Amino acid sequence: MGSNGTGARPSIKTERNAVYTKGGVVSSLSPMAASTGVRVLAEGGNAFDAAIAMAAVEAVTIPMSCGIGGEPFVIMYEAKTGKVYGLNGSGQAPMAANRDYYVSRGYKTMPLYGPHSAAIPGEIDAYYVIQRNFGTMPVAKLLQYAIDYAENGFVLSENLGNTFTRSVDALSEFSDTARIYTRYGAPLGPGDVLVNKDLADTLKTVAAQGPDVFYRGAIAKEMVRALRAAGSLYTEEEFARFEAVLYESPISTTYRGHTVYETNPPSQGLMLLEILNILEGFDLAGMGFYTSESVHVMVEAKKLAYADRNAYMGDPEFVNSPTSELISKEYGEMRRREISMDKTVGNVEAGPLGVLVAGGDDTAYFCVVDGEGNAVSMIHSLSNGFGSRFVAGSTGVVLNNRIGRGFSLVEGHPNVIEPGKKTMHTLNAFMVMKDDKPYIVAGTPGGDRQIAWNAQMITNIIDYGMDAQEALEAPNWNSWPGTDPANIDDPVVVELEPGMPDDEVAKLEAKGHTIRHIDVRTGSTKLILIDPDTGVRMGAADPRTDGQAAGI
After folding, report:
1. pTM score, whole prediction
2. Catalytic residues
3. What's the rounded Cα separation, in Å, for the pair 172 and 182?
4. More exposed terminus of the chain, fewer Cβ within 10 Å: N or C?
5. Cα three-residue angle 405-541-26, rounded to 5 degrees
6. In terms of Cα–Cα distance, which of 547, 436, 441 is closest to 75?
7. Distance of alpha carbon 278 from alpha carbon 282, whole angstroms
8. What is the pLDDT of residues 509-543, one digit of tens each?
9. Does position 352 have pLDDT exceeding 80, yes or no?
10. Which 3-state string (H, E, C) describes 89-109?
11. Alpha carbon 543 to chain centroid distance?
12. Spatial separation of the C-alpha atoms in residues 478 and 139, rounded to whole Å
């Protein structure tokens, strides 16, 4: 499926094979969601139908990562019109929440867990927005798969079970959470069956009555009751006003002749576009895969983009965010000139604005392409593992902790908490087009690691000529810090998975990078690669986790 570079194609040993098909294909962290997706496609549903069903099943079967108490961001391609759409399902802060409220109570940073950390969940409304605009099957039918898993239970895999075992203290903090996710305070583990009848009842009610019951009816009332009883500032009126936002023509840039679409702010997907603009001026293929030179320029590009995000970006309804300037080719060229091939700069400053142009993780990701060519790239999350750790009363819904994790309490910061404001999000989903058709549909959970891993997936394919499975299993790097207010001022550290020769590691250290070696490979990327000449779809899932690709 081709490389635009001139360097030698790296040899990547993979642990599993990709799935090839001319029909529909899906890739998910949850094998149960993957099987649900192909079942919906086989029954005549399109990619949008499959995405709704898969998202709901992931919400039940990966409860530490996502849920109907979480928030989604989506990139979608509609084959019949050739249009690309984005969807933002992030929630606002309470109208009574502001910096002074928390600072006056002694907080240096936002409460990370509990009722104060939750944003209004956008997942349910997102399902209905997608269905109304693109779907062919009723949401009630598509929710039934998730209802069955919640009501009858599913078996925890080794990975999931170990996560529950490690998280027993966190899951015991709130009584409604402990009642569902522990056994009277004892941990669940691999092979145990998890049943959540409260969540099944909530999903049944939504299926029967639609999204209004979740935001303006009995379910909303119970969520707000439980939140306020635990100290939250939310009211029923704020839930009633919530709407997921569908928009045309998501932000984009080009990379070596391909168009890359990303989710709009408050998603921080713009950083991927800025990084690609910076990298486009380097011969990555000529530098070689996973060498000191190629990793150095990618790490430096990432630092520049993160500095810009941290300095300038906030909810565009509140902050005049310079998105169009930051993702412009001119700005990328200016930032590229700040990279020295000989040494790292460590922590960097944000770039100057207005110089060149007028300005304008615990997570789950899946992708699906159907036989007609429709494509969905969707990420949804509770933010931290098990989100706020707070189950909203009798609903069985674990709420996210995006407000606690995302907002700043630094006065004047573009991402400081304000009434009704949305926090900037690590969540982002992307899609790469070739000749105006989907070519790469991919993404990953991982908080601030998402941007680095997504950039590597794209360069692995376009610069190094890897196939879908190779692009996921190739060794990768990450660097810290990112955007988390708790560690944003820490010294820069580069994490390397096994695979870089010792002499190249030494060269990277000689440039001034502090290296941390990761013995266990990390990540959970999912990817669909479409051959533009034959239409063959190649579905891949990362063997680092339970991920699975499947086709029809």
Report:
1. 0.93
2. 363
3. 7
4. C
5. 95
6. 441
7. 8
8. 999 999 999 876 666 899 999 999 999 999 999 98
9. no
10. CCCCCCCCCCHHHHHCCCCCC
11. 18
12. 38
102: Cβ contacts below 8 Å, ≥ 6 apart: 110, 111, 116, 409, 417
Distance from C-alpha of 457 to C-alpha of 442, rounded to nearest angstrom: 8
Distance CA 102, CA 233 (A): 12
User: For 333-353, what is the mean pLDDT?
Assistant: 83
Spatial distance between the Cα atoms of 524 and 28, rounded to a whole number of angstroms: 9
Q: Is the separation of the CB atoms in 456 and 429 below 8 Å? A: no
Cβ partners under 8 Å of residue 97, min gap 6: 233, 403, 417, 418, 419
The whole-number average pLDDT for the span 39-60 is: 98
Q: How far apart are CA 452 and CA 464, in angstroms?
A: 16
**Overall size of the chain counted in residues:** 552
Indicate the pLDDT class of residue 354, thresholds 50, 70 and 90. Answer: low
pLDDT at residue 139 is higher than 70: yes
**Cβ contact 387:400 at 8 Å:** yes
Q: Which residues of 39-76 are buried (b: 16+ CB within 10 A; e: fewer)?
A: bbbeeebbbbbbbbbbbbbbbbbbbbbbbbbbbbbbbb
Residues 404/110, Cβ–Cβ less than 8 Å: yes
Bridging pattern class, strands 437-443 and 526-530: antiparallel
Look at residues 366, 365, 370, 364 and name the one whose alpha carbon lies nearest to residue 38. 370
Residue-wise pLDDT for 217-245, tens only, equals: 999 999 999 999 999 999 999 999 999 99
- CA atoms 459, 462, 466, 467: torsion sign: positive
Bridge partners, residue 494, by sequence:
479, 515
Task: Give CA angle at 364 (431, 265), nearest 5°.
Answer: 55
